[in-house]
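Lecture 7 notes: from sequence to structure.

We start with a single chain of 676 residues. Read the sequence below before looking at the structure.
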Amino acid sequence: MLSDSANKSKNQPLIKVLIIGKEQSLSGNMREQYAFLKKRNDCQVEFINEEADEEKTASKIKQGNYDLVLIDEGITSSAWKIIDFVSNPPGSEQSHQKPKKIPRFYLDGSVDKVLDNEIKRTKFSGVVEITKEEKTLFRQSYGNASQSGTLEVKNEPNKKIVIASITKMFTAVAVAKLVEEGKIGYDDPISKFLPDGFPNKQYFIEKNITIKELLMHTSGLGQFQAESFFKEKILEFKSINDYIPMLTAEESKNMYHPDDNPRNNFRYSNINYLMLGLAIQQASGKDFHRYLQEDIFPTEMKDTTPARYGDQSFALSHAPLPEPIQPPSWLQNVLDSDQDELSKIAIKARKYLTQYNEKMSALIYLYQHGLTEVTSEDALSGFKSKFKEELKQTFKMFDDIREEIKIELEKLKQMHGDDIGDIQEKISQLEKLFNDISNNLSESSFTGAPYLLYSWIVDLSIAVPAGYLRSTANDLIVFQDALWKGNILRNPEALLSEMVALPPSPSGLSHYSYGTCIWNNGKPMEAVGHDGCAPGAFSTLRTYTNAGVAIATLANVENKDVFTPVKLIEEHLISNLVQDTNIQYFDANINPDSSAMLARDVQVIAHARLNSSSRSSRTQFFQEREIHDESQYNMMVHDAKKDHKKSDQQSWAPTLAPIQEEDEIQEESAHQKKHR
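Now the structure, written as tokens:
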């Protein structure tokens, strides 16, 4: 449907505007914009309400060659799909469908409404905060601090969440602080800070591993491998010194001799930062966590702690529940009195599955309900002791089951390996059942039971220099702001003084320096900071260096889609703040001048369109005049254009495609001059 503004003078260059929404039910803000457009004699406004079919809407935009597209508040959940279809037609064979110019999009609705669809789809649980030049643009919490279906506790912005490897950035800043004080040198060997009798100290002496190499993950050291030690002891740890015996555990041998990644190559390893924490303690004379609190954290950082305490200000970490194990239907019909070998193993499999389900249910209940009732240090200590004993029994049961499964499967295969028909089919089904149980008890993956248990272990343990500190989104942004303003280090740029290039990644992460990630190095959307991922937790902290914009996201529930809302924020909301884009928001927080920008857009397009429409008549005119007159006119146009741009750049520099038409005037004039 065309508005009244469609009936304009045919000689008037039209600005084509598409509004996605219903004219009769536009939001209040969009009604104001529509009223403004209707008053202009040079605007043609069309409506479409095809938000349910984003591709069809995108096709309409491409065919219509619109200058501006306004998307009403109720359609923001489809806005990104529409924009993506317009900007990136699916399939290279359809690349010819891409429009000559991408119109400017104006989205109505607040940031939380734009995010809402992806937050719900990905089940994001945690906190998102965005600031610009110390002003909070957005702070919102989602999901639950406790994920129990019968005892839900809502997340709040001040809930403390495990930040995982963002902790490495604190460790790197602590090292840099000690470097500025002359207590550590980047080229110092780590062995200089290891006491006599330190496990495998001779290895570090011989390899001459330096502080710089540890900071940049180029030391050649591998990851922790002492899984059994980790499971049995971690809940007893009270300081990072308690982790040292892990360096001598039998499973840790490969940590010192990684055979697939030689020294000087980037090899991400938590052990690098554990070693740095020991150096910080030795050089400062303070416990690692005390040094962070007293010498690194700004006084405004009041919610960053190394361990869970006896209160309810912490969100519980949750890895995904294991995938349900579906037994074959015939298994339930086997009688306990059946004595053939297949039935005996089937009965045992049924017992295993029952034990597994009961134990996991009991642990989930204990963790979720027991911890949410802890309100004091003594109560927390008692809970940890009880939980530690339950974990010990659980892991022993799982280990026993794995071993027995292995034996029974081997027997079954030997007895019936050559059989065919029904018995062979049942053997295959039992084998799959055993494998499913075994995988759920051994794999550290998004579907593995131990991964779920590890998320609770991490949640209850003490932080190390490589990870597991608890913090809030606001604390992280306070830290970033203080750091890059020089309030913690005299020369924070030292953290970026040397970089190691990383393989290309979908996240845009391009380089790693001293405990600092660099995304899209040297590009307009360059950011510095760190991400963190641990069982049951995901976090990201980034400062966009050319715009004073910072984002912190903390999630206490991890899943494979947890980064999707973060990417949405970065690609669309943050990019709108950092650089000029084809997307603007009618949101007072993100863009308080959006209405003025729309008006300015219309003016700029009208100015360009007017010049474009008079081009043909001027061409004829100049063919009948002296070249001097043409040059004089072009100079006048150039001066007017320069004055226009100068005034406009004081607050904003639009990049709409129609502006390029002014340049085309000069190009055509130069072309005519050349051939006259």
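The first strand starts at residue 15 and ends at 20. Keep this in mind for problem set 3.
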